[in-house]
Write a structure and sequence with these properties.
By secondary structure, the protein is α/β, with parallel strands linked by helices. It has helices at 20-31, 60-72, 87-96, 101-104, 135-139, 160-167, 183-186, 205-209, 234-238, 251-266, 309-321, 330-333, 342-347, 352-360; strands at 2-8, 42-46, 76-81, 108-110, 119-123, 130-134, 142-148, 150-152, 156-158, 193-195, 215-218, 221-224, 244-246, 274-280, 302-306, 368-372.
Length: 374
């Protein structure tokens, strides 16, 4: 049974040691980083840089505590993510969201190059075949995965598995495009768009939200570049009239592909070289790659850390299931009540499949011991 260490977001004493940064320091001490990392070893801190307008990411103060702890044992950390938009623009977004060398105390770099095609093709499994793992993540010997727990348009629930599956894999490969990258997970098969002209209000939100500028309205007619589009689904999510839908989606296969991709990334590391920190804070309904961040749907819960990705995800979900929906949020708009599975009600996605499949693939155990550091 794996150990998962937990620190609550509640502060009951007005002491630094009781603050969330202080508790994170105690979590890192408790898990004993020297069991996993060595002096002079390069350690990637994989996180999500957010988007312009989406600021509810893992806060820089927490990333700084992780880098400080690693540097205290003479390791060499850096903070990284793969590109969602053009690399230079994405680094600027990271800076706007407070993630830079000065704030986090370590270099901030792009894992798959400024053009997003610096990657290594790695054998995955029956669903994906081969996928393009970011070369920096492929090469680095050790990693700490800092994940912001939240909802997600395709995954329903997004935590460490999604962070590695979609964030450890490039959006595109220089030869086989999105079909070898994270786009191959977003929609199993080459999903097609159906546009209902009669319902369309020509608000152009779908065009504005597309990270690859694939969508155009020529003479007020919807068009998209099929070969460039990697089916992230943002355009369908933001359409207020339901005029744009994507066909051929398979939720079960998608969830299983997430687990397969995450395992592929993990397998590029030797055993006991990855730690997982899940931040159950500012839990918003959508991914941090959207162009805005809604108010949280649940109250802050705390921080979890483990060397077992399945256990840390299961523990996170178990805590979410015990949490009440917040008033004046999307959860209230959707009529979600205390005791409901908030994430499931919001997105209607069988998100737990990704956890079950990860366990089946031997990535960890859903049985865990939760250790509250108080």
């Amino acid at each position: 049974m794996s150990k998962v260490y937990f620190a609550s977001a509640r502060v009951k004493k007005w002491k630094y040691n009781e603050s969330m940064p202080g508790k994170l320091e105690r979590l890192l001490e408790k898990i004993n980083l020297s069991q996993y990392f060595e002096a002079d070893e390069w350690v990637a801190i994989k996180t999500h840089f957010g988007s312009e307008g989406a600021h509810r990411i893992v806060r820089p103060v927490f990333l700084r505590k992780v880098t400080d702890a690693l540097k205290a044992m003479q390791a060499k950390p850096f903070v990284t993510d793969t590109v969602r938009i053009k690399g230079l623009d994405y680094l600027e977004v990271a800076n706007q969201n407070g993630i830079n060398h000065l704030s986090v105390g370590a270099p901030v770099v792009i894992a798959d190059g400024l053009y997003g095609n610096d990657n290594i093709m790695v054998k995955a499994g029956d669903i994906l075949g081969e996928i393009a793992v970011a070369s920096l993540i492929y090469d680095v010997p050790a990693m700490i995965v800092c994940s912001h727990v939240k909802g997600h348009i395709n995954a329903g629930y997004a935590g460490a598995i999604k962070n590695l599956a979609m964030g450890g894999v490039s959006g595109s490969h220089r030869h086989c495009g999105w079909k070898c990258g994270r786009g191959s997970m977003h929609v199993i098969g080459e999903g097609n768009f159906i546009w209902d002209e009669k319902r369309c209000a020509l608000c152009y939100q779908c065009e504005e939200v597309c990270p690859l500028d694939c969508i155009k309205f020529d003479n007020e007619k919807f068009t998209y570049e099929d070969e460039r589009c990697w089916r992230c689904g943002r355009c369908t999510r933001v359409c207020p009239e339901g005029a744009l839908v994507m066909t051929e989606a398979n939720d079960e296969m998608f969830m299983k592909s997430l687990a397969e991709a995450a395992k592929t990334v993990i397998n590029t590391f030797k055993p006991n070289k990855i730690l997982y920190i899940n931040f159950l804070t500012e839990i918003q309904p959508e991914c941090d790659c959207m162009p805005a961040a809604d108010v949280p749907i649940m109250q802050d819960i705390g921080i979890l850390i483990s060397d077992d990705i399945v256990s840390v995800e299961q523990a996170s979900i178990d805590l979410l299931l015990k949490t009440k929906p917040l008033a004046s949020s999307l959860a209230e708009d959707e009529g979600i009540k205390e005791g409901d599975d908030i994430i499931l009600k919001l997105h209607g996605k069988n998100y737990f499949i990704q956890i079950e499949e990860s366990e089946k693939l031997g990535m960890g155990s859903r049985k865990y011991e939760l250790i509250d550091i108080l």
